[in-house]
Amino acid sequence: MTEDKLKIVVFGAFGAGKTTLIRTLDPLSKHVEADCTGGSTTIALDFGKVDVNGRHVYLFGTPGQERFEFAREIIGKGMDGAILLVDATCPFDEFVGHLYDSLTGSHIPFVVMINKYEEVGAQAAALKKHISGVPVHAISAKDRQLAFDALCTFVATLPPGHGHVHHDLS
Ligand SMILES: Nc1nc2c(ncn2[C@@H]2O[C@H](COP(=O)(O)OP(=O)(O)OP(=O)(O)O)[C@@H](O)[C@H]2O)c(=O)[nH]1
Ligand SMILES: [Mg+2]
Hints:
Blueprint lengths: L4 E8 L5 H8 L4 E7 L2 E14 L2 E7 L7 H8 L4 E7 L6 H13 L3 E6 L8 H5 L7 E3 L5 H12 L15
Parallel strand pairs: 1-4, 1-5, 5-6, 6-7
Antiparallel strand pairs: 2-3, 3-4
């Protein structure tokens, strides 16, 4: 019997918290980043692993900058599921709409996680109005329990993986 390996890709705008989420879920995760004003930004990918009820979940984070569309396309190949991470302190803009529409059109199971919900000025309710037909979880990417619970709930809805994860990057 082959192992159940799931490839889950995290999408979201610049600074939404994708790298933070993967680092919280897997403290040993790997990241390819560059310095930028106020911190760092992903320029290639994030990679982490986490076991969810005996299933091997491989987490891939994408760069959020719009110019890295090609990287998102490559990283997304063969994914079993996706997470759209939305920053609760930012409006649901055209780019987030583009990511949401792309995932909706792809027919790949996905979930929306509204991040930074604990921040003053978080607008989770306003953001939820733009989303229909997929589960929405309010999380903080810095809070392992909240993030892990949301991931577990999503993973429980996914069928066995397609086996597209062949390599262990760590
Ligand atoms: N308050 C708060 N800040 C957060 C949370 N998650 C991430 N951040 C902060 O948001 C900033 C951006 O986080 P990243 O994880 O680098 O965001 P990203 O989505 O990977 O960004 P790109 O790779 O540039 O697209 C950092 O300063 C984080 O510390 C959260 O849940 N709450
Ligand atoms: Mg990042």
